[in-house]
Design goal:
The structure holds two protein chains of two kinds.
Chain A lengths: L3 E4 L2 E5 L4 E7 L4 E9 L5 E8 L4 E4 L2 E6 L4 E6 L8 E10 L5 E5 L3 E6 L1
Parallel strand pairs in A: 2-11
Antiparallel strand pairs in A: 1-3, 3-8, 4-5, 4-9, 6-7, 7-8, 9-10, 9-11
Chain B lengths: L3 E4 L2 E4 L5 E7 L6 E7 L5 E8 L5 E2 L8 E7 L2 E6 L8 E8 L8 E2 L3 E5 L1
The chains are: A mainly beta, B mainly beta.
Chain lengths: ~120, ~120
């Protein structure tokens, strides 16, 4: 059964710190993995998408890595800012034996960056 | 990136009535659409997946007769919550993807449903 977990559940850091968010998944035969940001009461904002053949993706202060064999992905945020405060979700996509894919979201990490 | 819209953004309805939520891909053809539900302080749970012109595939525990999904065109999918109850109150989010398997999945802004 495919499952996705994220640790920590919540994180509070002072402004300027570098931080790492973790995502773990069972069943390493993934298709891709995507990191999202969600502000309270809002929809999702896509941050980074990593295909199964890739090991990392970078966008600005964000870097996401993927290690399929160990079932892990990390989201690295450099020089954190108060505006980074949000819930970060990872979503893992698997191909199923049927024609449909399955995307499962992790429970999220709630990040608070203190000015 | 591609844009997915949802309408309405929020809706309040009385218990026992039905509510329809629309999901549109504005600048691409969405061969596959997904519907998710998110309860407060919880993550997104996939409800169903649909390919254009086909019946939706529902996840275990999701009542297909209660949550009617129609994906009749390449740019529109609808979710109808029939005979809504207060426990159906939730944040409903759709996403859409183009025909290529490696196409990114784009998410709508969500619809907040409150059933009184």
């Amino acid at each position: 059964k495919q499952e996705v977990t994220q640790i920590p559940a919540a994180l509070s850091v002072p402004e300027g710190e570098n931080l790492v968010l973790n995502c773990s998944f069972t069943d390493s035969a993934i298709y891709n993995l995507q990191w999202f940001r969600q502000d309270p009461g809002k929809g999702l904002t896509s941050l980074l998408l990593i295909q199964s053949s890739q090991r990392e993706q970078t966008s600005g202060r964000l870097n996401a890595s993927l290690d399929k064999s160990s079932g892990r992905s990390t989201l690295y945020i450099a020089a954190s800012q108060p505006g980074d405060s949000a819930t970060y979700l990872c979503a893992v996509r698997w191909r199923m034996k049927t024609s449909y894919d399955k995307v499962i979201f992790g429970p999220g990490t709630s990040l608070s960056v203190i000015p | 990136g591609a844009v997915v819209s949802q309408h309405p953004s929020w809706v309040i309805c009385k218990s026992g009535t039905s509510v329809k939520i629309e999901c549109r891909s504005l600048d691409f053809q969405a061969t596959t659409m997904f519907w998710y539900r998110q309860f407060p302080k919880q993550s997104l749970m996939l409800m169903a997946t649909s390919n254009e012109g086909s019946k939706a595939t529902y996840e275990q525990g999701v009542e297909k007769d209660k949550f009617l999904i129609n994906h009749a065109s390449l740019t529109l999918s609808t979710l109808t919550v029939t005979s809504a109850h207060p426990e159906d109150s939730s944040f409903y989010i759709c996403s859409a993807r183009g025909w290529r398997e490696d196409y990114e999945q784009y998410f709508g802004p969500g619809t907040r449903l409150t059933v009184t």
